[in-house]
């Protein structure tokens, strides 16, 4: 089964709020479409997605910092790129591009943390959690699974970005990135996702989704199938705009 590319630009137990603690002034959105377009095309070209896709339509090509959103079930993750452990589900390579909104340039060598529930919508103590630094091209890549939805909000991956290559360093962004309802619908019909007994929350019903997609930012992961066959696995692209001078307080 093949679905057209869905292109959108842009992840302690209980909910943890990420709140800015400094007095950094808000940067006015400005056009940096050339820089971000080049950044995103380069990421797709190395996987052959640009040549295979005829409907690429980059969105939100302005330097906008990703809004802070409460993150779920945080615990310090292991340093690694492969997060799957023994979990089953739709394999997903999560390509997280980090952009400095003060310069419109990719940020290399900063720590990125991601974590999400498994196919049944349950968080684990170690599985599907990890942290790794962005490469010289500003991309941190993780081998994970398409998440199963919880009863607490729309389907998402939690994400945190630091200002340095250390998890002990200052956090410049804490939030969530989401998926279209259609992708969650389709994946949820397959095993083991079909065994998820949580109450489904649609994107429009989640206030965190609304916050994450405010201020001109797009927090929806662009999902592209591998070899035009999504059950074989998918690539998820998200670009996170951060202000390195901004400090976000996240309880440890």
TrEMBL record:
Transmembrane segments: none annotated. It comes from the Eukaryota. This is Intradiol ring-cleavage dioxygenases domain-containing protein. It comes from Leucocoprinus leucothites. Gene3D superfamilies: Aromatic compound dioxygenase. Residues 1-18 form the signal peptide. Keywords: Signal. The keyword Acyltransferase does not apply. GO terms for molecular function: iron ion binding; oxidoreductase activity, acting on single donors with incorporation of molecular oxygen, incorporation of two atoms of oxygen.
């Amino acid at each position: 089964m093949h679905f057209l590319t869905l292109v959108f630009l842009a992840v302690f137990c209980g909910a943890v709020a990420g709140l800015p603690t400094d007095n950094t002034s808000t940067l006015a959105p400005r056009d940096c479409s050339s820089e971000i377009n080049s950044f995103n095309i380069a990421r797709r070209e190395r996987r052959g997605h640009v040549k295979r896709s005829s409907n690429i339509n980059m969105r939100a090509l302005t330097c906008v910092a990703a809004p802070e959103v409460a993150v779920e079930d945080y615990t310090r993750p292991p340093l690694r790129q492969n997060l799957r452990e023994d979990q089953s589900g739709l394999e997903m390579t999560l390509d997280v591009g980090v952009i400095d909104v003060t310069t419109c340039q990719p940020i290399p060598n900063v720590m990125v943390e991601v974590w999400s529930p498994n196919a049944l919508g349950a968080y684990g103590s170690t599985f599907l959690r990890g942290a790794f630094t962005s490469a010289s091209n500003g991309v941190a890549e993780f081998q994970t699974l398409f998440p199963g939805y919880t009863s607490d909000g729309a389907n998402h991956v939690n994400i945190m970005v630091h200002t340095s290559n250390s998890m002990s360093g200052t956090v410049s962004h804490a939030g969530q990135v989401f998926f279209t309802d259609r992708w969650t619908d389709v994946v949820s019909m397959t095993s083991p996702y079909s065994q998820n007994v949580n109450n489904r929350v649609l994107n429009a019903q989640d206030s965190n989704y609304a916050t994450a997609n405010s201020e001109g930012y797009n927090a929806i992961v662009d999902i592209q199938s591998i070899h035009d066959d999504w059950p074989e696995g998918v690539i998820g692209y998200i670009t996170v705009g951060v202000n390195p001078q901004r400090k976000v307080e996240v309880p440890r």
